[in-house]
Structures are given as structure tokens and as C-alpha cells.
Amino acid sequence: xxxxxxxxxxxxxxxxxxxxxxxxxxxxxxxxxxxxxxxxxxxxxxxxxxxxxxxxxxxxxxxxxxxxxxxxxxxxxxxxxxxxxxxxxxxxxxxxxxxxxxxxxxxxxxxxxxxxxxxxxxxxxxxxxxxxxxxxxxxxxxxxxxxxxxxxxxxxxxxxxxxxxxxxxxxxxxxxxxxxxxxxxxxxxxxxxxxxxxxxxxxxxxxxxxxxxxxxxxxxxxxxxxxxxxxxxxxxxxxxxxxxxxxxxxxxxxxxxxxxxxxxxxxxxxxxxxxxxxxxxxxxxxxxxxxxxxxxxxxxxxxxxxxxxxxxxxxxxxxxxxxxxxxxxxxxxxxxxxxxxxxxxxxxxxxxxxxxxxxxxxxxxxxxxxxxxxxxxxxxxxxxxxxxxxxxxxxxxxxxxxxxxxxxxxxxxxxxxxxxxxxxxxxxxxxxxxxxxxxxxxxxxxxxxxxxxxxxxxxxxxxxxxxxxxxxxxxxxxxxxxxxxxxxxxxxxxxxxxxxxxxxxxx
Length: 507
Prior knowledge:
Elements: H1 3-9, H2 11-14, H3 18-42, H4 49-62, H5 64-74, E1 79-80, E2 93-94, H6 96-114, H7 119-123, H8 125-142, H9 147-174, H10 177-204, H11 212-216, H12 223-242, H13 248-267, H14 271-288, H15 293-320, H16 329-334, H17 343-361, H18 372-375, H19 403-434, H20 438-457, H21 467-506
């Protein structure tokens, strides 16, 4: 194909033509004036959004990378649509999700124009598992008990993955400095949100468990998501504080961010987040001290044997624990093992039991992606219901990143999620040990620890349907994959160079 024909077929090349740019300016201006006039006659309040919308379109066309960073910055600041309009059948996070949809469409358009995607990325095990997940989501959406709900779930997963994984990887591979930019584009506004939430605590006059939910509204659905995000990003912020190429004043900023995230984690009163961070630190120690896989496996087997040997005694002790959630931190920690009177713990057990019963009913394809909250009510047993149980479709989901897919997408959906967890951890370990650059080595470990905190937290809650968790989890995976591929590429180039020099020496 000649370059002239390629230019005609590729609109992005056409947009570089000065005459086309001038015509576009006139067309956009005319469209704005016409829309402005029509909205004035109809007394519509949407007029104020038009200039911003037009600006975003122009940025997407001419400076797509800028739009990527703008979206990232607004992820921690996003607010659910329901905060602005009650009673809608749909909900999304504003302003991020509409922008993500647009970026996904541009991404798909570019794939069609460019004729494909980076083959090395597509061949990576993590990408293959993600693609298999998407294929299985499509299949189970077709067989879903509520196809419309399931296809909405599919679209949401697609725009999160398109931006935070597939587009992000290209930025990371093209310029590794974008890895640092990605992390801090999320950390800075996240720290600002912690300040706002802390001020709300002060305004409520409370730093206790009762204030944890109203304080985080509207930026987070509840305090458990807030805690999960704090635990996810705290290792990365700490890594840049402890070991980074930053100057003193930038280290001071890192210290402030770490302090804020720690305060946010503490006053989230999210017990699962506290546990997950401890688990992440444990994983870090295993990797840093190079504890062998056999030793870890033996340790797990010992714990399993101990559970079966002393499980009955442990269960009796847990049943004897009647400490409920409390404003007192020590008592709140003690309530973690209360499965007798703590409503939160009991309701989680109720949801898990429902998920297992749903899986038994439809073991292969499940009830359909995103349908758990609409379908679990008939599977509740009266003996397991709590004071916070509900039959309405407003009581949340399965509270598990593993049992949720099991009930919604069958055993294959759950296995694919477990495979994603395993390969993400293995990739993180490999990338960490392969790095020679101090900053990249620190980043690899920090990302791995952050992901481990989320994977542990995923046993008790699931948040991948939110932009805040998706930007962290999918973005962290994208960074690890990019680092893995870049390192392999660099080693391949070095081996080729060495081989060429040997050939020259022989000749």
C-alpha cells in the first residue's frame, strides 16, 4: 500500500494536514454555536459541559497521552453517578468511566488501523489469562440468567482493561519513566482524598468505626474499599520513601504521602485491609530472604494439617469470642475472629454460603457475570441470616474475588482468577530478582507486595468493578508485565551482540 493511500485511510494522519485542522476548528466551532443556541432555547443545564467535552475530544485526537494522565489523576477523585441522580438503573464513576469508554473506543479504532497489538504482550502468560477471562465472560454472559446485566459487566471490564492494562503497557514499554509517573499520578490525588476524609472525620467529631463509612462518602462506596486501596498503594509509597532516586524535598513529599496513607488505613477500620497488609509484608520477607518454595509449601502443609487436627478446638474458641466491631482498636482487632455475634463476619459467611449453593446449582457456567447480587437471595438460609441481611439487590456482592466468579461464571471462572493470582505473583518474583536498577527493583517488590495485599483482601471482599481498585490492580500487573518483557528484550539484545562479537573474533 502506498504512503498516500495509507494517509487517506488513516484519519490520524489526515488530522496532521493543516487544511484539515483548520476545517476541523471551524466545524467544531459551528457545532458548538448551534448546540449552544439549541440548549438555550430548551433551557438545558448541560451547556456548561459542552466546552469541557469538546476539549476532551480534541485532547483525545491530538494528545492522547495527556488524556491518559488526566484520567489517572481523576481516578481517586471520582464520584458515583448516583450521588448526582438517584433512581437511575445505571451507575458509573464520574468523570473517569465516560472517559475510559472513549479511550477504549479510540484504542479499538487504533487497533483496526494499525492492524494489531504488540505480540510480545499478547504472548505473556498474564495477558493470555486475562484474554481467556474475557472470552469466558462473553460465553457466560450468553448463558447468563440476566444477559443484560452480564454484558454490562463485560463492557465495564473491557474499558478498565483497555486503559489500565493494554494501553498502559505500551506507555511503560515505550518509556520506563512512565512507570513512576503512573504511580504518582495516582498517589498524589489519593493522598489529597485522605486529607479530605480526615477533615470529614474531624467535622463529624469522631475518629471511630461508626464514622468510617460516612467519612469516606462519596469517594468510596464504603470503608472496606477505602482500606483496601490504602493497603494496595501503601507499599509503593513506602518503597519510594525508603529507597528511591528522589531528592530530599521529594522524599519529604513521599513521607507525607506514606503518613497519610497509614492514617487512612488505620481510621478506615477495615480489618481485612489490616490483615492483607500483614500478609503482604510476610510475602515480602519470604522473597527478600529467598525462602525456598519447598519451605513455603511445607509451611502451608503444616498449617493445613494443624487446621484439621485442631480446627474443632479453634472453632470452639472462635465461637466463644463475642467481641463485636468496636471503636477501640484492640477490641476491633479481636473482633476479627468473632463468628458468633459480629454481624459483619456472620453476613460474610452468609454470602459465601450462598455463593457455594449457587455454584452447586450451576457449576459450569454459573448464573452470569455481575448477577450475584440479584440472584443470591433465594439461596439464603434463615439460620444464617443476620440483622444486616437483605433480599433486595442492594446489599452488595459475594464479598470474595474467588467465590464471586465461582457463583457467576462457574468453576472455570474461579480457576482463571486463581491462575491470574498465581502468575502475577510468579511474574513479580521473577521481575524483582532480574532487576539490577535499584529503583526498578524496589518498584517490582512494592508492586508485588501491593498486589498480594489485594489478593489476600480478595478472600474477604471484591472491588475490581470499581475504577480505584482496577487502576491499581490492572495497572500494577501491566507494570510488571512491561518490566518483564523489557528485561527479556534487553537480555536478548545483549546475547545477540555477544554472539555477533564472537563471530567477528573468529573471522
